[in-house]
Amino acid sequence: MHTQTAHEAAPPGPHEHWFGPFGRGLHAASKVLAALGGLAFVALVAMSLVSIVGRKLVAMPVPGDMEVLMMVAAAASAAFFAFCHLEGGDVKVDFFTAHARPGIVHGLDALGSLLVGLFGALIAWRTGVGAAALREAGETSAILGWPVWVAQAAMVPGFVLMAAAGFYMCGLHLRAARISGEDRP
After folding, report:
1. How far is residue 130's CA from residue 145's CA, in Å, rounded to a whole number?
2. How far apart are CA 101 and CA 30, in angstroms?
3. Would you state the pLDDT for residue 4?
4. What are the boundaries of each domain within the chain?
5. Most buried of 50, 91, 143, 174 (most Cβ within 10 A)?
C-alpha cells in the first residue's frame, strides 16, 4: 500500500489539483467572483477616463463619478480575497519556517487559514448587519441618490467566499500536516 509522502500531501502553490468536489466548486465560484471584480475595475477605469477627459475638454465630467468609484471599488475589492487564498497568493513571511519540517509549516498554514476563515466570517456578518442598518435608515449617496446599502451588501458574497476558502484551506493543511507527521520515522 502506497502512503503519501509529505511532498505529495503538501498543497504547493496553486492548490486546485488537491481539492475535492467542494473545493473545486468553491474555487470555480471564487474565480467567477474575482473575474466579475476585475471587470468592475475595468469599467471603473473606463468611467474615470471618460470623466477626466470630459472634465478637461468639455467641462462635463461623469456626474457622481467619485460616488460610483467608491461604491463599486469596495465590492470589487472584496471579490478577490477567496480566489487569492485558494491559489496560495497570500503574503507569507517564511523566513523562520524555511527549514522547518513540512508538518510544522502545514500546521502554521492551517492556523493562518483558520484566521482567514474567522476574519472572513466576522467581516461578512458585520458587513451584512451594516447593510441592513443602512437600508432601514434609507441612506443614499449625496449626488446620485443611490441607496448606500446596496454597495455594502454587494461586499458580503466576497467575504462569505473568503470565509469558506479559509476554512477549506485550513482542513487541507491539517490533512497535509497529519500525513507529513505519519511519514516521520
Report:
1. 18
2. 31
3. 44
4. 20-88+100-182
5. 174
Residue 68 carries which side chain, given as an amino acid letter?
V
Alpha-carbon span 105 to 112, nearest angstrom = 10
* DSSP track, 95-107: TTTTTS-HHHHHH
Q: Could you tell me if 146 and 140 are in contact, meaning their C-beta atoms sit under 8 angstroms apart? A: yes
Grid cell digits, residue 174: 491539517
Whole-prediction pTM value?
Answer: 0.86
| 3-state helix, strand and coil shares in percent for the chain, rounded to the nearest 5 | 70, 0, 25
Per residue in 84-117, pLDDT tens?
Answer: 999 988 887 778 888 889 999 999 999 999 999 9
pLDDT digits (tens, 9 = 90+) for 5-15: 444 454 545 56
Cell of 38: 476585475
Reported as a pLDDT band with limits 50, 70 and 90, residue 185 is low
Let me know: does 73 contact 154? Beta carbons within 8 Å.
Answer: no
Total count of residues recorded for the chain: 185
Q: Which of 105, 82, 78, 68 is nearest to 29 (CA)?
A: 82
